[in-house]
Amino acid sequence: MNTLFKQTLTASILSTMIASSAFAVPTETPPAFVKKVADGLISRLKADQGKLQNNPTAVKAIVRQNLDPYIDSQSFTRIVMGTYATNQNSTAAQRAQFERNFRETLIENYGSAFAKFSNQTYSMRPYKDTGSANPVVTLDFNNNGEKIPVSFQLADKGTQWKIRNINVSGIDLGLQFRNQFAATVKRNGGNLDKAIANFQPDAEVAVNKKK
């Protein structure tokens, strides 16, 4: 293979990769994506409502199937680990373990919240495209006459959007979880492995902190 041919082939491959990445964009608008996720989850909860009482395993299974695939756990992990997410402060293995544990405890958190679901409805606030790389879509959930705003911050993952952070009633869960994790590290004497193993993010505590 002569040098000119190799250079031409390399240039061709690179241009194809660049072109592919340039056009690999989500096919849905941010509001359409969030509506799809919300409607899919709510319809499952309503359909199986009779089976969910005192059955956390069933609730977690629904959350795992209908919400977990749309969570950008890598971005969420970086937000929550904060300074511990850098190569200088943690190893790749520690970050991977944190992500696995965090993803599972998120399912536990959302499972507990959705176990209380009883035909709540939601409305979507008008969406304005600001050109941000992380657009935000806000839903107002109606719970026994109380309106609870939930904002979903999204990340462009090429072919679809994913949820990288959530804000409930003005409370940034990523930031609150970061504070909880930092406190866990401190309680474990700065031992990151122990902190990762013992970390239990608590969304209810985070949200109720404002009250």
Automatic annotation (TrEMBL):
It comes from the Bacteria. Gene3D superfamilies: Tgt2/MlaC. Residues 1-24 form the signal peptide. InterPro entries: MlaC/ttg2D, Tgt2/MlaC_sf. Keywords: Signal. PANTHER family: INTERMEMBRANE PHOSPHOLIPID TRANSPORT SYSTEM BINDING PROTEIN MLAC. This is Toluene tolerance protein.
